[in-house]
Design goal:
The protein has 9 helices and 6 strands; from the N terminus they run E-H-E-H-H-E-H-E-H-H-E-E-H-H-H. The chain is of the alpha/beta class and 212 residues long. It starts with 6 loop residues before the first strand and ends in a 6-residue tail after the last helix. It is globular and about 50 Å long. It has a single domain (7-206), classed as Rossmann fold. The structure holds flavin mononucleotide. Residues 13, 19-22, 69-73, 110-113, 155 line the site of flavin mononucleotide.
Length: 212
């Protein structure tokens, strides 16, 4: 299995007490070995981000996750502030800015809009991958490998506990598989969303034909 990957989850939700989905997701990965969770709104209620500390945390991890609800086709504001301040020249980019080279980057987002709404015929016109392009290109510029995002669509329609529970399970499984290097990375990169890869892998594990 080799050395586990250390995962840093940068979590941004400005009103966690009102959250239905992200609250469950973050609870599911809390306390896992090798996983560090930074709740940015909790850490920095006044947006005074400790750049040195955040950079040290980046250095100490192999996989960086931005977890947040999708707000105005992007992230809640603090993640933008975090990027503007922490991803400094000569640290994250530029000739001497190689600190993040070789790390992997994942977006884990939840959207009010349904999956069908995010396409040319839908009312959001653009696909999620297109709308996440600034995150993808930021990761690339910083020398990180951009992984297909984990997306939960249609959060307002997710009324049944079992529907949400399946997503929460998948998120926790994905984080555990990333940590334990249980991912076929090449195969994962063929998918638009991490969810599709997870469905395949988890369906196979749950199949009655699967022999332990
Ligand atoms: C300020 C704001 C902006 C939002 N913008 C979008 C958006 O651009 N696209 C979308 O699909 N949903 C949007 N939503 C819906 C949220 O994504 C949705 O409520 C959230 O993912 C649910 O997760 P939670 O239960 O953890 O809050 C927005 C919600 C708020 C409050």
């Amino acid at each position: 299995m080799g050395k586990p990957n250390r995962i840093l989850i940068l979590f941004a939700h400005p009103a966690l007490e009102k959250s239905r989905i992200n609250r469950q997701l973050i609870k599911a990965v809390r306390g896992m070995d090798y996983i560090t969770i930074r709740d940015l709104y909790e850490q920095y209620p006044n947006f005074h981000i400790n750049v040195k500390l955040e950079q040290e945390l980046l250095l100490a991890h192999d996989i960086i996750v931005f977890q947040h609800p999708f707000y105005w086709y992007s992230s809640p504001a603090i993640l933008k502030e975090w990027q503007d301040l922490v991803l400094e020249h000569d640290f994250a980019y530029g000739n001497n800015g190689t600190a993040l080279h070789g790390k992997k980057f994942l977006s884990a987002i939840t959207t009010g809009g349904s999956e069908e709404a995010y396409c040319r015929q839908g009312h959001n016109y653009f696909t999620i991958r297109e709308l996440l392009a600034p995150f993808e290109q930021t990761a690339r510029l910083c020398g990180m490998e951009y992984l297909p995002p984990f997306v939960i669509h249609g959060t307002h329609q997710l009324r049944e506990a079992h529907q949400l529970a399946r997503y929460v399970d998948h998120y926790r499984s994905a984080i555990a598989m990333f940590r334990d290097n249980m991912i076929e990375w090449e195969q994962l990169l063929q998918h638009k969303h991490l969810n599709h890869y997870l469905e395949q892998v988890i369906n196979k594990l749950e199949s009655p034909l699967h022999v332990q």
